[in-house]
């Protein structure tokens, strides 16, 4: 199964995303969506699970929450906007490290593509898919889960 990963669109759904995400079975958006139309464009590609970011105050009506859990391809994902392991809120930290640990935390907010493993959990930031900040390349990512459950991730540049 292929899963599209993105964050920080800030109201801009790059038209290249449709081609980059061709064939994905699901899309995880880690917040700072910007406009509901971004979700509509992504839903035209595949089902979407999205969380609210710190700039998404107007989108609370769209059914998005602050934290989402999904099991896709036999792997457990937790999606949150502010999810760097050193910046986790106490309630999110409990979700990640206690009980039913996710295989991957998909997060955004920092506008930096990043992958690190802490206490057996992969923390993955696909990078900013919207208008990037100086020094931070725009990107999305794909997580691919093989039949034996192995998961590979790769960034796809939007520059």
Q: Please, what is the average pLDDT?
A: 93
State the shape: globular
CATH class call: Alpha Beta
Which stretches of 5+ consecutive residues score pLDDT under 50? none
Order of helix and strand elements from N to C terminus: EHEHEEEHEEEEE
In this structure, how is the largest beta sheet organized?
Answer: 5 strands, mixed
Q: Which bin fits the share of residues in helices?
A: 10-25%
Strand order of the largest sheet: 3-2-1-9-10
Strand content: 25-35%
* CATH architecture label: 4-Layer Sandwich
Number of alpha- plus pi-helical segments: 3
**Assembly state (oligomeric):** single chain
Number of domains: 1
N- and C-termini, Cα separation: 26 Å
CATH structural fold name: Purple Acid Phosphatase, chain A, domain 2
Radius of gyration: 14 Å
Structural class: alpha/beta
**Got a strand count?**
10
Molecular structure report:
The chain has 159 residues and is of the alpha/beta class. The protein has one domain (2-157): Purple Acid Phosphatase, chain A, domain 2 (4-Layer Sandwich), CATH 3.60.21.10. Helix content is 13%, strand content 32%. The protein has helices at residues 16-20, 36-43, 90-97; strands spanning 2-6, 26-29, 48-50, 67-72, 75-80, 104-106, 114-118, 121-125, 139-145, 151-157. The strands form 2 sheets. Strands 3-2-1-9-10 form a 5-stranded mixed beta sheet, covered by helices on one side. The chain has a 5-stranded mixed beta sheet with strand order 4-5-6-8-7, with helices on one face. The radius of gyration is 14 Å and the shape is globular.
């Amino acid at each position: 199964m292929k899963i599209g990963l993105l964050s920080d669109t800030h109201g801009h759904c790059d038209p290249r995303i449709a081609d980059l995400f061709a064939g994905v079975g699901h899309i995880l958006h880690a917040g700072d969506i910007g406009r509901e139309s971004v979700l509509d464009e992504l839903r035209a590609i595949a089902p979407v699970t999205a969380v609210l970011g710190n700039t998404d105050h107007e989108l609370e009506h769209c059914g998005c929450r602050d934290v989402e859990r999904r099991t896709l391809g036999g792997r457990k994902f937790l999606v949150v906007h502010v999810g760097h392991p050193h910046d986790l809120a106490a309630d999110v930290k409990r979700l990640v490290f206690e009980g039913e640990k996710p295989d991957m935390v998909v997060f955004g907010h920092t506008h930096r593509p990043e992958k690190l493993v802490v206490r057996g959990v992969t923390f993955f930031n696909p990078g900013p898919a919207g208008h990037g900040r100086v020094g931070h390349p725009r990107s999305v990512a794909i997580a691919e889960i093989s039949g034996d459950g192995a998961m590979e991730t790769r960034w796809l540049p939007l520059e």
